[in-house]
Amino acid sequence: MYRDVSACNTYNYGDALYWNSRYVQEAGSFDWYQRYSALRPFARKYIPTSSRVLMVGCGNAVMSEDMVKDGYEDIMNIDISSVVIDMMKRKYGYIPQLKYMQMDVRDMSFFSDESFHSVIDKGTLDSLMFYNQQLPFLPGCRLLKPGGVYMLITYGDPTVRIPHLNRPVFNWKITLYIIPRPGFERPDGCCSSSKSFLEPVPLTEKGLLPADFVLEDPDSHYIYVCQKMDETIVDISHPTMQQV
């Protein structure tokens, strides 16, 4: 059975006051879901280091810092919390490749259309869906250049995320990867799988996992790589959105 934790939460994750209060209490750094070291193979495959990247819901994570150390040249970080943005500006003010701005992802009208090559979303869509199960938009789709990539890292399996991602208005080419949570270990006696977490996961024509697909870690994270397509764009990835 697959899960979507966005259906079982009582906090108001769409409220800046909640996050401001939380970041006042949690002054250190914290990366939701996965660190950059685990996500690096996917970032380097789909997002050139010269890209202009938008990190939505950056929080106090060190992922953007790690990406700059890995050669990325231009990362705009936004978050609804003014507290955490002030904190990150003080922390990283000496790094010109990192920029920080207080902004609600539900209103990014400050940015012009097609102004980013990539949008990275690590848990932000999940937080918004805690707040509003009928989310009418996706963070950043308007902002992507043709051929650009929206990379979503989420707890949401295809039954709850593909309906949002696969709407015709977005015109995505979607590739799915599934990786175990940090620290996951196979149960004793469980044979080692021949599957590589770096290989795309095949999906059915309806965008679902095959009926015989075995999820080794029930708390896995799903990585949806959504490439913005139009008639002139050549697919930048290897064969994706495989159907069975």
From TrEMBL:
Single Gene Ontology BP annotation: methylation
Keywords: Methyltransferase, Transferase
Keyword Transferase: yes
UniProt xrefs under CDD domains: AdoMet_MTases
Alphabetical list of InterPro entries matching this protein: Lys/N-term_MeTrsfase_sf, Methyltransf_11, SAM-dependent_MTases_sf
One Gene Ontology MF term: S-adenosylmethionine-dependent methyltransferase activity
Record domain Methyltransferase type: where: 54-151
Family: Belongs to the methyltransferase superfamily.
PANTHER family hit by this protein: S-ADENOSYL-L-METHIONINE-DEPENDENT METHYLTRANSFERASES SUPERFAMILY PROTEIN, SAM-DEPENDENT METHYLTRANSFERASE SUPERFAMILY PROTEIN
Protein name: Methyltransferase-like protein 13 isoform X2
